[in-house]
């Protein structure tokens, strides 16, 4: 398998706190890569650095072979990384369909004049965007909620909508930040089916998750962060047996 | 003559102009939470640029409506460039500054524009040549001029177009997404800087149109005409619920009506103590009352929803 994303020595400081320390990891194309760690280990910080919401303090990230210019969200999106959020961040006052349609911005022309004068090309593009949005709503299983305002959707549906919106940007890498947080067992099982479907359709997935069972069952490889450092990276079975990991999760030394 | 209906016609005319200007305030506020106090001056620049274009063209004997159209086009282009420049020079560097900084800058820009206009066009009042058809017609006992009808029609069509743009196009969707959450919109590939610049450009084009209409309505233009007009339009935007497009339109028309009716009846109501020049008192009194009972304006969202 070829490397899709390579992070080399990525660091991030908040004031005096070293939130990420020299994190180096490689995500291969086509795999589901899990990132786990205790609360405050730096998982979300890594996500935010990776997706351009935070600037990094050192290190570099190669994506699909070329350096990723971090700190500029829409360029990261154009490069092919999309994400969802631990605390869902949809455009609440727009409909579900419109949320997904906004996601198509990264992949469609800009044409202001076309928009103002309703040119044939602009109308055709608009129709294509709408069609694709409906396909994606169907793909994540909320085809019937397209006309509802995003904030009126149920929690589980909002998570699905966020994934549909992220997919609309045609990502090579889809980063999911705790997608199962707050979900019940049924919703989690459905989410698992959805993520497995993504892998089958060729999307590489980076998964941050608290639900260790879900991560171990779903991921091809797993990295563990603790106090901003990567302490393990391996297939799930090996990570589970890694003494450093057990110590980080349970505290104290391993008997 | 029916005074009530007459004042309603006058109020609707004035109100449509307020609404056009109010849209500029509300669009910018909606997308970046900034009150662009320089917006009224953009209206003034639009009116004066249009006037400078009209005079030689009209003297050359071109038909009136064509002259106005050309003047409007030139004024719109100048104002769009001006709006773009203001955002780039005065507001973008302060995007992440505390809220007071861009507000004070806006007042500064407003003063600069007024002084520049005074240097270019002088301190005198300029008569605007009556180029648009102004024939008067009697409707149910009141007089309505063709000019008034043109103003209302043009304003209504423009506003309908803007609503379509914001609700039905990709650009509009990007604007709404940026207004709700610039960071996430950016993550979706929306270039917030570009959207904000375009918002200023569109608002400035509306301001140019308003400038041409208001100077045609009163028949005069001068370098400080933007100040009180801007203040009224801002009031209209707040009245309707700032950040809300429909609110700006309703607020504008309502303010125009209140003012016209106030001017028409204030003398009778106060037994002649207050004359019609107290019309502004009415407008601002209504604003205060509305804000006491609905702090977010008539059509504004509850503050908690905007979080």
Characterize the structure shown.
The complex is a heterodimer of chains A (255) and B (307). Chain A has 10 helices and 10 strands. Chain A is globular, with a radius of gyration of 19 Å. In chain A, strand 4 and strand 5 (66-67) form a beta hairpin. In chain A, helix 3 packs across helix 5 (120-139) and helix 5 crosses helix 6. In chain A, the strands form 2 sheets. Chain A has a 6-stranded mixed beta sheet, sandwiched between helices. A 4-stranded antiparallel beta sheet of chain A has the order 2-1-4-5, with helices on one face. By secondary structure, chain A is an alpha/beta fold. Helices cover 39% and strands 24% of the residues of chain A. Chain A has helices at residues 43-50, 73-79, 96-103, 112-117, 120-139, 155-168, 185-200, 212-218, 236-241, 243-250; strands at 3-14, 17-28, 32-36, 60-63, 66-67, 81-83, 173-177, 204-208, 221-226, 229-234. Chain A has 2 domains: 3-80 and 171-250, Rossmann fold, CATH 3.40.50; 92-155, no CATH class. The model of chain A has no long low-confidence stretch (mean pLDDT 85). The termini of chain B are far apart. In chain B, a hairpin with a 2-residue loop joins strand 2 (136-139) and strand 3 (142-145). In chain B, helix 2 (39-59) packs across helix 8 and helix 3 (64-91) packs across helix 8 (192-218). With 307 residues, chain B is mostly helical. In chain B, the strands form 2 sheets. Chain B has a two-stranded antiparallel sheet. A two-stranded antiparallel sheet of chain B has the order 2-3. Chain B has a single domain (2-293), classed as ABC transporter involved in vitamin B12 uptake, BtuC. The chains are: A alpha/beta (255), B mainly alpha (307). Chains A and B meet through helix 2, helix 3, helix 4 and helix 5 of A and helix 6 and helix 7 of B.
């Amino acid at each position: 398998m070829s490397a899709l994303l390579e992070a080399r020595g990525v660091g991030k400081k908040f004031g005096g706190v070293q939130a990420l320390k020299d994190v180096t990891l490689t995500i291969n194309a086509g795999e589901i890569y899990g990132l786990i760690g205790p609360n405050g280990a730096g998982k979300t910080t890594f996500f935010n650095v990776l997706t351009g919401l935070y600037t990094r303090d050192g290190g570099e990230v190669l994506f699909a072979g070329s350096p990723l210019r971090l700190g500029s969200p829409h360029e990261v999106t154009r490069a092919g990384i999309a994400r969802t959020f631990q605390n869902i961040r949809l455009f609440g006052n727009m409909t579900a369909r419109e949320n997904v349609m906004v996601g198509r911005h990264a992949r469609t022309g800009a044409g202001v004049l076309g928009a103002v004068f309703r040119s044939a090309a602009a109308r055709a593009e608009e129709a294509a965007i709408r069609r694709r949005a409906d396909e994606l709503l169907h793909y994540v299983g909320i085809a019937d909620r397209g006309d509802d305002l995003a904030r009126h959707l149920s929690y589980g549906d909002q998570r699905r909508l966020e994934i549909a919106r992220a997919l609309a940007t045609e990502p090579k890498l889809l980063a999911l930040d705790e997608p199962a947080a707050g979900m019940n067992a049924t919703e989690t099982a459905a989410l698992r089916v959805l993520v497995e479907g993504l892998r089958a359709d060729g999307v590489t997935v980076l998964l941050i998750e608290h639900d260790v069972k879900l991560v171990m069952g779903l991921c091809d490889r797993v990295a563990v962060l603790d106090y901003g450092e990567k302490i393990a990276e391996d297939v799930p079975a090996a990570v589970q047996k890694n003494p450093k990991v057990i110590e980080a999760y349970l505290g104290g030394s391993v008997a | 003559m029916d005074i009530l209906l007459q004042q309603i016609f006058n109020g609707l005319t004035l109100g449509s102009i307020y609404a056009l200007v109010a849209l500029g305030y509300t669009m910018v506020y909606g997308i970046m939470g900034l009150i662009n106090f320089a917006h009224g001056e953009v209206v003034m620049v639009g009116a004066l640029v249009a006037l400078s274009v009209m005079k030689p063209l009209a003297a050359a004997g071109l038909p009136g409506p064509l002259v106005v159209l050309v003047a409007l086009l030139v004024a719109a282009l100048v104002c769009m460039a001006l709006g773009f420049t203001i955002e780039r020079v005065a507001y973008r560097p302060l995007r992440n500054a505390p809220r007071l900084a861009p507000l004070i800058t806006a007042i500064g820009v407003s003063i600069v524009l007024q002084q520049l206009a005074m240097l270019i066009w002088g301190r005198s009042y300029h008569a605007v040549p009556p180029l648009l058809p102004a024939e008067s017609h009697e409707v149910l006992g009141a007089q309505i001029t063709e000019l008034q009808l043109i103003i209302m029609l043009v304003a209504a069509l423009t506003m309908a177009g803007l609503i379509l743009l914001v609700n039905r196009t990709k650009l509009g969707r990007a604007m709404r997404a940026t207004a709700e959450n610039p960071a996430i919109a950016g993550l979706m590939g929306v270039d917030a800087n570009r959207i904000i610049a375009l918002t200023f450009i569109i608002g400035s084009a509306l301001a140019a149109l308003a400038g041409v209409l208001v100077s045609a309505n009163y028949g005069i233009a001068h370098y400080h005409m933007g100040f009180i007009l801007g203040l009224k339009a801002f009031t209209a935007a707040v009245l309707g619920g700032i950040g809300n497009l429909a609110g700006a339109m309703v607020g504008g028309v309502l303010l125009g009506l209140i003012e016209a009716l106030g001017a028409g009846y204030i003398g009778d109501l106060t037994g002649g103590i207050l004359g019609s020049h107290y019309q502004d008192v009415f407008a601002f009194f209504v604003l205060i009352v509305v804000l006491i009972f609905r702090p977010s304006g008539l059509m504004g969202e509850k503050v908690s929803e905007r979080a």
